[in-house]
């Protein structure tokens, strides 16, 4: 069970995942069972980097006693990503040495580490841009029996109480919650930053601990991938006859 | 064995996304040779028994006013307990914002595998395999669920609700609702507007519109079509439009029947949020704009000339002078 750190030091855990660059070509190999990684640039999942991590760094800038740990569940090839995250900020990183795309498996690994870490705050991104689960934060929270605020667009701290604005269906809601809490972050929570030279240099010497995964049975597995059927091609309507577009959308596409 | 569908509601009404989930759950129950039931926490003004027309036989309700506000932790406990009590082995959520908050917690409580963002009925010919969206709409993955209890959360607009005949029995749940740890300070809900994720038509503008003062025609066209409005990321970043209209990789992902993109170049990150739209129409003055490659219909032309004419054409079609 997490408790607020009795020394009054804020401890934050930021969950970092590795995703293909947003412009990566999406293709599959081995009979459509594996993502084709050839030539793919890997990046920190944008939500994790731009919002979750940067907000944690901002909190540390306000209160320098704050400790930020980063965690990634990934194989050795995730190390450049976690180093880049350390270059942006954060004190140390943990890599759980496992390669899985099952949300329950990943969340269980994060929860296992968090259990002993006395974190006041656990930040995740809104979703990974490859598997689009949007599930890990909620699972980690349930595993630790903590409140979870999904899809935050603003996050503020006053002592041990967080005030969070989050997106709800068709609007937004302002919540107040006592720490510890799990929060998934999206646009609005912070502004994207670029790592500076000092950060890059210091990241090299920051601790990166590798731990072996807890024994957890994944509950799902990927059977195969498919690409969407190609579009038939665009039907162009002359600019001087927009009425024809409305007619086509109405009569041919039956879009309204 | 049964299929249990979570029914999401706000302001006294069951959401359209939940009607889709109910229809999906009923169709799945048909495949599995079992029955579908619904679960609703809180109260609505409409007749719950009438939801039977979507194919559910029974609706479990915990009719407590305090539950009209969704607290994920409180909800997850009740739903998991109800799932066990009713012997449900498949749970269906809509993958809307409510579903994203609740389904992962329920999955942990039931040790159930979760597929979020399903776009079709499961294939049960060999196991239980669900097709879902991956790589931000650029591909699909078929995911096998291997746990005894399974949870599927269905993407909005991926499965059309099918209304037939029938009434559902409404039964009161006797489960103790816990207290919420999260306190709601305030909430704002845009009323009267079509929520972006539920909208069947979306009219969207990009930097090609030059400035916020030119959005009047976008709003007018949207209103005439009963559409929601959206925008590209730089437009929201420049505060021309509110952030909740930003669609794309880092914004909202939508899948309307019709997406009309005006003055948007069609960058890959923008397409990631809109490429599941059934029909895409693009208006852009640059014939080389990448968006035309992803479009079904297009006009190469100046938005400031084309859009007013589109508005006239829709008015004519709808018989509005
Ligand atoms: C990691 C990452 C994530 C991103 N996420 C998103 C995202 O979620 N959503 C998003 O939208 N973008 C996103 N972007 C940005 C994206 O790459 C593009 O920069 C952005 O989509 C461009 O917006 P735009 O099309 O409105 O503007 P522009 O690229 O400037 O295009 C304007 C278009 O308007 C046309 N035009 C100009 N004048 C007229 C006129 N009078 N009539 C008709 N057409 C006209 C031009 O020909 C041009 O095609 C992301 C980028 C990165 C790197
Ligand atoms: N392998 C991973 N290691 C650490 N954190 C992760 C991992 N996968 C996902 N996350 C975190 O969980 C968030 C939501 O991911 P998902 O539920 O998979 O869409 C991401 O934005 C990350 O913050």
The tally of beta strands of chain B, per DSSP, is 17
CATH level-two architecture of the largest domain in chain B: 3-Layer(aba) Sandwich
Mean pLDDT of chain B: 95
Ligand inventory reads: flavin-adenine dinucleotide, adenosine monophosphate
Rg measurement of chain B, Å: 21 Å
Order of helices and strands of chain A: EEEEEHEHEHEHEEEEHEEEH
Give the CATH level 1 class of chain A. Answer: Alpha Beta
Look at the structure and give the mean pLDDT of chain A: 93
Layout of helices and strands, plus pairs?
The complex is a heterodimer of chains A (256) and B (321).
Chain A: E1 11-15, E2 18-20, E3 28-29, E4 34-35, E5 42-44, H1 46-62, E6 67-73, H2 79-88, E7 92-96, H3 103-117, E8 121-125, H4 136-144, E9 148-158, E10 161-168, E11 171-178, E12 181-185, H5 197-203, E13 208-211, E14 220-226, E15 235-237, H6 242-252
Parallel strand pairs in A: 1-6, 1-8, 6-7, 7-13, 8-12, 9-12
Antiparallel strand pairs in A: 2-5, 3-4, 9-10, 10-11
Chain B: E1 2-7, E2 9-10, E3 13-14, H1 16-32, E4 35-41, E5 58-62, H2 72-86, E6 88-94, H3 97-110, E7 113-118, E8 129-134, E9 139-145, E10 150-154, E11 169-172, E12 183-189, E13 201-205, H4 216-225, E14 228-231, H5 233-237, E15 258-262, H6 268-274, E16 279-284, E17 297-300, H7 303-317
Parallel strand pairs in B: 1-4, 1-6, 4-5, 5-11, 6-10, 7-10, 13-14, 13-15, 15-16, 16-17
Antiparallel strand pairs in B: 2-3, 8-9
Bound molecules: flavin-adenine dinucleotide (FAD) and adenosine monophosphate.
Flavin-adenine dinucleotide (FAD) is lined by residues 206-208, 232-235, 248-251, 263-265, 267, 269-270, 273, 283-286, 289, 302-304 of chain B.
């Amino acid at each position: 069970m997490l408790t607020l750190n009795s020394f009054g030091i804020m401890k934050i855990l930021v969950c970092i995942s590795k995703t293909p660059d947003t412009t990566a070509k999406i293709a599959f190999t081995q009979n459509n069972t594996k993502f084709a990684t050839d030539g793919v640039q890997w990046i920190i999942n944008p939500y994790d980097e731009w919002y979750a991590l940067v907000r944690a760094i901002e909190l540390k800038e306000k209160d320098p006693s704050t400790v930020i740990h980063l965690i990634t569940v990934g194989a050795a090839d995730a190390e450049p990503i976690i180093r880049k995250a350390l270059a942006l900020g954060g004190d140390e990183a943990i890599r759980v040495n496992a390669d899985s795309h099952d949300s329950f498996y990943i969340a269980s690994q994060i929860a296992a580490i968090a259990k002993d870490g006395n974190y006041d705050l656990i930040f995740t991104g809104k979703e990974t841009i490859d598997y689009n689960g949007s599930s890990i934060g909620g699972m980690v929270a349930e595993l630790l029996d903590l409140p979870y605020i999904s899809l935050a667009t603003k996050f503020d701290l006053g002592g041990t109480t967080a005030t969070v604005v989050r997106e709800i269906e068709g609007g937004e809601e302002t919540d107040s919650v006592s720490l510890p809490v799990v929060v998934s972050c999206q646009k609005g929570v912070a502004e994207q930053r670029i790592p500076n030279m000092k950060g890059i240099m210091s990241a090299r010497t920051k601790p990166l601990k590798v731990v072996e995964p807890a024994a957890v049975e994944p509950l799902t597995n990927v059977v195969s991938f498919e690409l969407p059927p190609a579009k038939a091609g665009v039907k162009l309507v002359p600019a001087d006859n927009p009425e024809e577009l409305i007619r086509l959308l109405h009569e041919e596409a039956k879009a309204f | 064995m049964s299929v249990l569908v979570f029914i999401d509601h706000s302001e006294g009404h069951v959401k359209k996304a939940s009607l889709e989930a109910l229809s999906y759950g009923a169709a799945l129950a048909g495949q599995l040779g079992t029955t579908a039931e619904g679960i609703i926490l809180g109260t609505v003004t409409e007749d719950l028994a009438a939801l039977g027309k979507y194919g559910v036989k029974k609706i479990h309700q915990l009719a407590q006013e305090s539950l009209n506000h969704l607290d994920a932790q409180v909800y997850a406990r009740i739903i998991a307990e109800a799932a066990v009590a009713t012997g449900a082995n498949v749970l269906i959520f809509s993958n809307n914002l409510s579903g994203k908050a609740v389904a992962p917690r329920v999955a942990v409580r039931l040790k159930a595998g979760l597929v979020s963002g399903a776009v079709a009925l499961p294939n049960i010919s060999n196991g239980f395999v669900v097709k879902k969206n991956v790589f931000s709409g650029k591909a699909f993955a078929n995911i096998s669920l291997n746990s005894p209890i399974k949870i599927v959360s269905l993407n909005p607009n991926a499965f059309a609700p099918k209304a037939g005949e029938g009434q559902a029995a409404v039964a009161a749940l006797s489960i103790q609702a816990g207290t919420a740890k999260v306190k709601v300070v305030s909430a704002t809900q845009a009323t009267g507007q079509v929520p972006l994720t539920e909208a069947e038509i979306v009219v969207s503008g990009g930097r090609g519109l030059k400035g916020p003062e030119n959005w009047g025609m976008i709003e007018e066209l949207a209103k005439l079509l009963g559409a929601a409005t959206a925008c590209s990321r730089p437009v929201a970043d420049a505060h021309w439009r509110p952030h909740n209209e930003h669609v794309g990789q880092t914004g909202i992902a939508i899948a309307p029947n019709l997406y009309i993109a005006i003055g948007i170049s069609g960058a890959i990150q923008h397409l990631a949020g809109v490429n599941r739209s059934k029909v895409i129409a693009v208006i852009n003055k640059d014939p080389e704009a990448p968006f035309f490659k992803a479009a079904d219909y297009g006009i190469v032309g100046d938005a400031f000339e084309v859009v007013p004419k589109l508005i006239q054409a829709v008015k004519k079609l709808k018989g509005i002078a």
